[in-house]
Amino acid sequence: MAEHEPTLRRVTVAVFVCALAFPFVASGYHLYQGAQVLILAIALLGLNLLTGFNGQISLGHGAFFAIGGYGAAILVAKLGLPYWLAIPVASLVCFGAGFLFGFPALRFGGLYLALATFALAVATPQILSYKGFDAYTGGSQGVSLAKPHAPFGLNLNGDQWLFLFCLLWAAALYWAATNLARGRIGRALIAIRDQPIAAETMGVNAALYKTTCFGVSALYAGVAGGLSAVAVGFVSPDSFGLSLSLSFLVGIVVGGLASLGGVLFGALFIEFVPNIADQLSVNFGESAKALPGAIYGVLLILIMAVAPSGVAGAIQAAIRFLARGARA
User: Fold this and answer.
1) What backbone phi and psi angles, to 5 degrees, belong to 143?
2) What would the pLDDT profile of 241-251 be if each residue is shown by its tens digit?
3) What is the pLDDT of residue 1?
4) Residue 33 · residue 190 · CB < 8 Å
5) In whole angstroms, what is the distance from residue 251 CA to residue 271 CA?
6) pTM of this structure
């Protein structure tokens, strides 16, 4: 892996430079899609730290996404905070919620933890719809936000600025996750995932690392939720259903578990494959209403069959194959 790091850094820089140029050549709709990809990638980064590196399976990260989205929306629409301040404040609330949820999660493991987080994902939309919270959450009507304008007199329209704003957040959080995963903390998380008894014998505080990892993962989901609220300009309980949490898990598996760069491929899959499935089903008329789900499932099965370690794993395998061929 170390021998490929210079190549990976060059690829990362090239992708970032292309992303910086994207707002000046793309339409408003494509910029919105690009912003959604970046937002999903941020959420997948956090979940990959939790599941890919630490081995804790979560089916409830849509709940933290919802807390971040509603937290930012309430702070902006109800309390008058600027959106750029509301997002980090809401994400800190998510960190606290994730950290606290990590304590009971210590008692669970594997499928039991998955079921506990599944319950969290199921309950969150119902809690957001509770009439007692209508003054803040807007009930089933949700909360609307105005589209922000570019600051400092920058010659950018709203769509361009939102994409660049999401890109800055994604770049900063990717840098933070990369440094965390490659450092002492990352090695401790992997040790807890692979050999928990040996890790504790070596002095690793598994409880602290697990709860903190849950909190950091929730923070990433909260940032993504806050950015989504600002980008879409609206939040409602229906936006954070169970399918959102499941799509996050699909994203990290498609991109590659324990692969931070792979989250981009996972985000592209989540954003575009359902749309492609819908477009393909249009040719079959009204009689094929269930066809998009079937197409989505078949594509997911094909990807898992061709690249069982995810898209990032398949790319790394191809690079190793080409490197061996060049040396030969």
Assistant:
1) -130, 135
2) 889 999 999 99
3) 47
4) no
5) 10
6) 0.93
